[in-house]
Amino acid sequence: MEGNGVPVVKYRRPLLITAAALVCLGLAAVPGAKLYYQSSWGEACARCHEIQPNFDSWQHSSHRKINCTQCHASSLEASVRRIVLHARGEVPESFHLRLNDVFGMMERCKSCHQQEFAQWRAGPHATTYSRIFTDPKHNEKRRLMDDCLRCHGMYFGGGVTDLVEPVSTTGPWKLKDPKLAMQPAIPCLACHSIHRQGAPMFASQDRTGPKQEKFRPSLALMDRRSQLPISLAILPIPPVMEGARTVRVSPDQRQALCYQCHAPLSTNQVGTGDDRTPIGVHEGLSCIACHQKHGQNTRTSCANCHPRLSNCGLDAEKMDTTFLSSKSKHNIHFVKCGGCHTKGVPRRIAKR
Predict the structure, then answer these.
(1) Among 78, 207, 246, 316, which is most buried by a count of CB atoms within 10 Å?
(2) Are residues 127 and 185 in contact, defined by beta-carbon separation less than 8 angstroms?
(3) Would residue 4 count as lying in a domain?
(4) C-beta atoms surrounding 112 within 10 Å
(5) Is 170 in the same domain as 108?
(6) Same-domain check for residues 85 and 101
(7) Strand partners for 128
(8) Residues 323 and 282 in one domain
């Protein structure tokens, strides 16, 4: 009872009813808003001016027949966050995906690209944040730095000190956010831009001979600094040297994407840094000639050329190279005939 004898509950009940009604209205608005965004096919998304450029590029992309909501999940939390930013006048000039958005989108990539996703999942590019940044064998030899994120964490919103501790050659190392441990460090969107301009691919599309497209328009490198994808068509293939000699490199433009992470050091010498440019018996071959596009599987790569192109007639798969065993001293990328024939390379066996 208050001082005048009027029960407090008399005033609280209308407030509770009003609050409950607002909560119910808010909950009811979520499915309504979802339906609105699905039915508008992006028109509703583009009402926010910072999303307009993304909407415009999507309309000319190979994914233009896919509804925005099939790839992007607009959660209540994300919507409230954008409203708060607008109210504060802190609207960004451009809209970029956050790390969690990228992880969420990967499941949607999987729904359409099941085979490609399975190959990627089984390959080395599906490596996790924990595997890359808490590896004692690597971290004891080389100090972690922000440049590691250029290839292994393009969407991470911070520096290496925000990701792992300690940043030194003395461990033990741990991720500051344990939730990242099993998340992919190289997601689909590291190499694919779904808004890249291009025509959709259809099952009936002619893929014979020179009519085949050389590569999908979605191939692009996600540049961490600008937070923009760089089209494969304009990515450079670096010059590679073996001493003073220029190495013959395949003109396959697809490997320009590989070179952005697997490039030689500033000296451009073959085999330095993460470079794997083939020399010796395999000089001139493209990365894609041996490595499966999404899974990097090389199990059948030798059979593509051998024994048909074998100079010595031996079974190439049984030779002492890293194809047979990772412990071999003859790296398959750099192996030369003289590496095994130290007393001189025998003459080529004449075909009968």
Answers:
(1) 316
(2) yes
(3) no
(4) 12
(5) yes
(6) no
(7) 184
(8) yes
Mean pLDDT value of segment 260-264: 94
Beta-bridge mates of residue 223: 228
Please tell me whether residues 88 and 115 are part of one structural domain: no
* pLDDT (average), residues 303-329: 85
What is the pLDDT, as a whole number, of residue 339? Answer: 83
Q: Which domain holds residue 55?
A: 9-67+77-95
Distance CA 232, CA 217 (A): 8
Indicate whether 271 belongs to any domain. Answer: yes
Residue 205 in domain = no
**Confidence (pLDDT) at 29:** 47
In this structure, are 193 and 247 located in the same domain? no
Residues 55, 40, single domain; the answer is: yes
101 pLDDT more than 50:
yes
Average confidence (pLDDT) over 228-252:
94
The count of structural domains within the chain is: 3
> DSSP E strands: which ranges in 122-272?
164-165, 174-175, 220-223, 228-231, 241-242, 245-246
Query: To which residue do tokens 């005939």 refer?
Result: 337
- Residue 69, SS3 per DSSP: helix
> In terms of domains, do 86 and 107 share one?
no
Domain stops at, among 205, 231, 257: 231
Pairs from 146-152 (Cβ < 8 Å, separation ≥ 24): 149/224, 150/224, 150/261, 151/186, 151/260, 151/261, 152/127, 152/185, 152/186
pLDDT category at 9 given cuts 50, 70, 90 is low
In the prediction, which pLDDT does 42 show?
66
Question: How far apart (Å, rounded) are the C-alpha atoms in residues 159 and 156?
Answer: 8
Together in a domain, 278 and 289: yes
What does the pLDDT read at residue 270? 97
In the predicted structure, residue 14 carries a pLDDT above the cut 70: no
Percent of the chain with pLDDT over 70: 82
Higher pLDDT, 2 or 287: 287
Mean pLDDT in residue range 95-121: 89
